[in-house]
Amino acid sequence: IIKVNDESVQEIVKRIEKYIPSSNKNRTKFFTQQLLLRDYKDSVKVSYVREGEKHIKKVRLYSSKEFGFEIPPPLTEKYTILEDNIGYINMSNIKIKEVDKMMDNLINCKAIVFDGRYRPNGIYRRISHHIKPQRSEFVKIIIPDVSYPGRYIWKDTKDLEVGGNNNDYYKGKVILLVDGQTQSHAEYSTMALQTAPNSITIGTQTSGADGNLSSFEFLGGYATSMSGTGIFYPDGTETQRMGIKIDFKVVPTLEGIIQNEDEILKAGIDEAKK
User: pTM for this structure?
Assistant: First the structure.
């Protein structure tokens, strides 16, 4: 898409990005692309290029309830074994009670790809028991000192450590996939899984918006929310705004999108094959 109602995509992004609530530029891009075709009118005029040819089309608009669209995961299985004995886990589809059986089925894979680009279901603790030999910390947290506005104190995170004594832990490669949709609990979960001895994180900058959510209201009935705690790695590295640590950066290309290729998943599989 190059224009919407005779306004270029670049002009639209520049006009609306200051109104987008996001922690970094990568997340801003994700939200602005969702807004390009939104309007209060019944339709919009769209100029686009397909296979090198320019087209102009009038496109009808629908409410979100009418449309009912959800972004599908790259693979719909909860988990599967791909070619070359590589395990794949869709983190958003697995429940805690399913983790033990899943890991037993994947224990002999030479690598396991954990797709963290969709919100998980609180499974990081259970998974950590299977991919780590011992218990360890993965996060440090600051909380506001309500007795002294503006001051923050370090929270005791001993009870937040993950893993346990397990000599039979999974010893293959742990490949973690992330992108701009990896946000909040997904970022927190990835941080925990990064403590596995053989973990490698691949993808683009994450949302940088983890931490407990604090909501409040303004006069007039308006409401908003923001992160209520500060989230850091054990070494003090900040995650909010920055996103989580990435070992290999992979940015999807226009050509890959045209070919309907999941380049981040491909990079993860390529790394698993090494």
Answer: 0.89
